[in-house]
Design goal:
764 residues, alpha/beta, five-stranded mixed β-sheet, 27 helices, elongated
Length: 764
């Protein structure tokens, strides 16, 4: 059974009811009142004996020990109660003092004392604190005053006819004082296990009830009273009954225990101060009734007052120290909430707040706002090559260098990963600050005996003309777009935002693009256009490249470079690639004899999802794998060359060819030709476009063609626009090309005309 406040109140209510009935019978029917009173006390004592032994036998360890000890104590107490009742009801002579009844009664405090020591030894111990020590002294002093004023003082002053009688008389209040003091100190010096709180507090309450009635009895006897009114014997009924209830407690963990635990926790908090309140009430009554306050009460009372004042002073000092710690903790938490833990820079939340304030000042006071966005190039390689611990060291070094390149009033933040942002609040111009940062980051980081070099693509924006509708997010989109445009044009570039990049910075672009990929009408369709790939010798179309085109009702015609970049940043590139692949296979399924090139982001090569998508699409439209060419675009690095090579080989097993797009720019290197099972290389147009050093372009382009042929790789030249370029490519040995000379990307209907015209020309 579990002890609950309701059961405790029920036991107290029943005992009070018996005491009230006995008191009402006491005047007219004294014998009946005595029988009822003594029988209730004896039955309560026997209930405590049975409950303690029975539940002790079912328990283990300290829980068994304290129950057995208290059971032995109540066995003696019940025996003393039986002797007392016999003399009162059946005896014709008074009860001698000392007597066997006294021996039985005093058995309880002895064994209860040992049981409390067992409970105290089984409780968690914590070092004594000044406040706890003062609380303990206040409790001891208060209990002494109460005991002295109600019983002990009267017994001492009255004396007894024999030393034995005096010893027995004084044993009751002294033992009660010791027991109650130990119980309250157990509460003061620590908390019990929450699951043991109900049993402990119920046990404490039962022993306190016994002590209160003992005190009344000793006081009345010292005053010469022959018997005690039944109403004052209620403690002798309540006490054993509550102990019996405490012994039945079986702790549980139910969902509804929280309310009960709060009740007992409140009892724990209030119990140490009950004796102090009782002392104040007792002294007040003595003063109001003209009672005598002897020297012992005065001395101990003054000491208790002194200790209470000292305790409050210590508490005030501790509260002040606690308040300081709370303030420090709040400041620390605030710092952690708004700063990056790795670099100590402002985090995204704080930076956005400062940027929003700067934008607001620009809108209302036309204060210029300068902003930089720094994205480290190929930082993943550092983590993969040297480990994340080294990467963290490099990031801290990058943060220190960026801080050193700007003013103390400028706000430098780490937005996440390898992305940093700088809000310029000094007179430093964005282009100047960007060049400083770029130059600082190009210097190698020395890590022991190793050197690590990282570059950065930087986007910059400045607002000079008033823009009443400017927001912090809009400005962040601008520098992000400028940075990404620079990254697409070659890494390590500082790009200043201008109006031509407005499409890149549109905040609605990612959401609209996602809707368009899902086929939602309001976002506009994503269509596939096709550009012919021809034989340079006769202009016959041998293949087509599938290119995505998007016209948004909200944004208008969005350049492919813009929405492809947005797809990569938003994690939509895989869905976009799959959409183009499916559309191209469905639309060109009947164009027998033509290969179909489809662009695939390099970051997807090696992912099982790509292979599954290709297999499913080929099967769905009956498309021959030999007609499909997957072009690995230069929008991102291949994350795992070994996995990519294995994936490419599995695709080739399906008959699918693999091509490297824009070879010679971006991420592609000769290592790709060495590692990947490549069928085709698409030579970037810059090698055939006149430049400042055409002889270098000639040498490199011719070398690429020669190496590819030596490896059995087909070369397709991109960006062919003039017959002179055709002549150059023919001289190099390149036989295939595509470009505006042969046709612009167009819908499938127009492509069919181009293909038919090419076939007709080849037959002449």
């Amino acid at each position: 059974m579990t002890v609950t406040p309701a059961r405790v109140l029920a036991v107290i209510g029943a005992a009070v009811t018996v005491g009230v009935i006995a008191q009402l019978l006491h005047g007219d029917y004294p014998l009946a009142a005595t029988v009822l009173d003594d029988s209730a006390q004896l039955l309560a004592g026997l209930a405590a004996v049975v409950s303690c032994f029975w539940n002790g036998w079912r328990s283990h360890g300290p829980h068994r020990t304290w129950r057995v000890l208290v059971g032995i104590g109540f066995t003696g107490w019940s025996a003393g109660m039986a002797i007392w009742a016999w003399y009162r009801i059946f005896g014709n002579i008074g009860l001698p003092s000392p007597s066997l009844a006294d021996a039985g009664y005093l058995t309880l405090p002895v064994f209860a004392f040992i049981a409390l020591l067992v409970l105290a030894a089984n409780r968690p111990w914590r070092p004594p604190h000044a406040v706890l020590i003062l609380d303990a002294l206040v409790v001891v002093g208060s209990l002494f005053i109460i005991t002295w004023a109600t019983a002990l003082g009267a017994v001492v002053r009255t004396g007894a006819p024999t030393p034995a009688a005096f010893a027995v008389a004084i044993a009751y209040p002294v033992s009660d004082l010791v027991l109650v003091t130990i119980m309250v100190l157990m509460v003061v010096f620590g908390r019990s296990n929450p699951r043991q709180m109900p049993a402990l507090l119920t046990l404490v309450l039962g022993l306190v009830a016994l002590s209160i009635s003992d005190s009344f009895f000793a006081y009345l006897v010292s005053r010469g009273a022959e018997e005690m009114p039944p109403i004052l014997d209620i403690g002798f009924i309540v006490g054993p009954a509550l102990v019996a209830l405490a012994a039945t407690d079986r702790p549980s963990r139910r969902n509804d225990d929280s309310g009960r635990d709060r009740v007992y926790e409140l009892a724990y908090l209030l119990l140490p101060y009950v004796p102090l309140a009782g002392t104040g009430l007792l002294i007040s009554v003595q003063l109001l009734t003209g009672g005598h306050i002897d020297m012992a009460e005065k001395v101990v009372g003054l000491l208790v007052i002194f200790m209470v004042v000292a305790r409050q002073l210590i508490t005030l000092l501790e509260n002040r120290m606690l308040l300081e710690r709370v303030r420090y903790g709040q400041a620390r938490l605030e710092y952690q909430a708004f700063h990056d833990p790795l670099t100590g820079l402002a985090n995204r939340a704080l930076f956005h707040d400062r940027l929003a304030a700067a934008v607001q000042a620009h809108r209302h006071k036309q204060v210029p706002v300068g902003l930089l966005f720094v994205d480290l190039d190929d930082f993943k390689v550092v983590n993969d090559s040297f480990g994340h611990a080294t990467g963290d060291i490099v990031l801290r070094g990058v943060a220190d260098r960026i801080r050193a390149c700007v003013s103390d009033v400028d706000v430098v933040a780490r937005l996440g990963g390898d992305e940093f942002a700088i809000l310029l609040r000094s007179d430093l111009q964005p282009d100047e600050a960007g060049e400083r940062i770029s130059a600082a980051l190009r210097l190698p980081f020395r890590l022991g005996e190793r050197q690590v070099t990282v570059g950065a693509s930087i986007g910059a924006a400045v607002t000079k003309d008033p823009e009443p509708n400017l927001t912090a997010d809009t400005l962040l989109n601008r520098v992000d777009a400028a940075m990404y445009r620079g990254k697409r044009n070659g890494k390590g570039i500082l790009t200043i935002y201008h109006n031509d990049l407005a499409d890149w910075a549109d905040p609605d672009l990612p959401a609209l693009l996602a809707a368009a990929i899902r086929g939602e009408e309001h976002a506009g369709p994503i269509e596939v256009h096709y550009q012919p790939i021809v034989r340079l010798g006769d202009g016959v179309t041998v293949a087509v490249e599938s290119l995505a085109r998007w016209t948004s009702p909200q944004l208008g015609q969005v350049p492919p470079l813009v929405f492809v970049a947005a797809a990569e940043r938003a994690g939509l590139i895989g869905a976009l690639d799959d959409l183009v692949l499916e559309t191209a296979c469905r639309e060109t399924a009947k164009l027998a004899g033509l290969q179909v090139h489809v662009n695939i982001s390099a970051g997807r090569l090696g992912c099982p999802q790509l292979e599954a998508s290709v297999r499913d699409t080929l099967a769905r439209y009956g498309f021959s794998g030999g007609r499909l060419v997957l072009e690995i675009t230069e929008t991102s690095r291949i994350p795992d060359l070994e996995a990519a090579a294995q994936s490419a080989q599995r695709l080739r097993d399906l008959g699918v060819s693999v091509a490297i797009d824009d070879f010679g720019t971006g991420y592609s290197t000769l290592a790709y030709l060495h590692t990947l099972p490549v069928d085709t290389v698409k030579l970037d147009y810059m090698f055939i476009t006149p430049a400042a050093h055409p002889e270098r372009g000639e040498a490199i382009g011719q070398s690429v063609v020669s190496i590819s042929h030596a490896l059995g790789i087909t070369v397709i030249a991109e960006g062919v626009q003039t017959p002179a370029q055709v002549a150059t490519l023919t001289r190099w040995g390149c036989t295939l090309g595509q470009g505006y000379l042969y046709g612009r990307p167009a819908p499938l209907s127009e492509l069919r005309l181009i293909a038919a015209e090419s076939v007709q020309r080849s037959s002449l």
